[in-house]
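User: For documentation purposes, I need each entry recorded in a consistent format: the amino acid sequence on its own, followed directly by the corresponding structure tokens. There are two entries in this batch. Please keep commentary to a minimum and don't merge the entries.

Assistant: Recorded as requested. Entry 1:
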Amino acid sequence: MSNESCENPGEVVLDDPDAAIVLRGPLADLQRAAHRLEENGIDCAIVRPQDVAGCCATTLYLAVARDDAPAAYAVFDQDWRKGLSPEQIEALEAASGIVLDPDAPETTCPACLTTFATGPKSCPDCGLSLG
């Protein structure tokens, strides 16, 4: 499935029920991700939708066999954790589970974990837009 150029439009892969899209982004980022997957024995392809004209479309996808998707995500998760302290990982994992409830008396910012009374459209500490 390896294909690091955007010569192949990839319409077959995008419609293939046995393929899974694991990333979307610019070509250089997907090439780096594809290299990491291939280093870990995961076959992949960089594809673009059929209806996009030109070779270097802004929306490109990294696809793997559906059965390889969990392993691909594990590679990305491992790379994400490199260089982070256990405290940083714990804070980020806690933040990923935050649900903003506009009816709750207070809310916690998913970016900086500041807790404040519900109402503002942005975090009073870091400025993250919550609306």
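Entry 2:
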Amino acid sequence: MTTNFIRRSLWIALLLSLLLPIHLRADGARLDGMPQGSGSYDDLVTLFEEFLGWRNTDTGYDADTILKRQAEMEKFQAQLADMAVVEWHLAQQVDYLAVRSRFDRYDFRLRVSRPWSRDPGFYADQMQRITFTRLPLDHDETAELRRRLVSIVELSELAQQNLTEVAADYADLAIHNLRNADGVGHGFPYRATPPRGVIGWYDDLLARAQQQQPELIDDIATTRQAVESFYNWLVDGRPAMTAAAGVGKEHFDWYLKHVKLMPYDTNQVVTLGLRELDRLWSTHALEQHRNRDLPPIELPTSADEYDERIGATDKKIRDFLVNEEIISIPDYIGELDTNVPWIVRPGGPNFWEQVQFRN
């Protein structure tokens, strides 16, 4: 019996052990042990497909809609609890556990994390991606963009109605992201100087519309004003936004066990994290000693030097992989990319730039 097989068997046994104790949903309802109901494995597959379709209709965040979705989620949970899991093959039981974790994660979101009422970033994130739209657009694409721009205006108004229990940390982060770039691309379109946050990207879209599709100027300007209105509302209301960002130890312990399927509680996770931090600092000290006779790595001083370093790193990686006969690299594989563009900041590079510019 191989070591890998032993490890895999132990892990599956660990997962299944989570089925045996009393299972509590986020609202405290009991699901005792491994279900011994009437549902088949095919019923589980069908239920999961129905759940995914239902979850993807998650577009409304007013109080009545949330209460309705909570009631619908309870029905999904009840059907899941009626599965004859105890009679299934091991692989099917593991699938049940994976589905249950998905249900529990969404249930936790509805009842505990509640981002639509606690986290302004929940709305700010939805406001940004539309600004990456490439112009000019054809007739149908223009109509769709206008529809989406109107939806952002409505989202701004909805956010100001729904955010009734805002966590202080979430408010600060949203305020920052609406007006500041963090220096990391996140897959955004490249700009030599990244736009200043979500509002800056609306300025970018507006500037492109002025050059490429002037008939969109008013639509974009109206939406930009709505986003800025949301920003101002957050800034003005920030003194009263004092809730805690965390969900509390009891809720997080539940989340670790039933959503992340981890056999650890919060205290044990902290212990593991501190142990890994100590290990990291030990490795760091050893690396410092090993390279003690080398000069420290300095930041590049220009975009050209940064590009040269990226190119040199790309070549070094390719040569290592090929020369060591690890993998071959076909000609169609593009050059190494980075999601941290070159930028000069008055206060110096931020954290991500400090890392990437040296890396």
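Summary note for entry 2:
The first strand starts at residue 23 and ends at 24.
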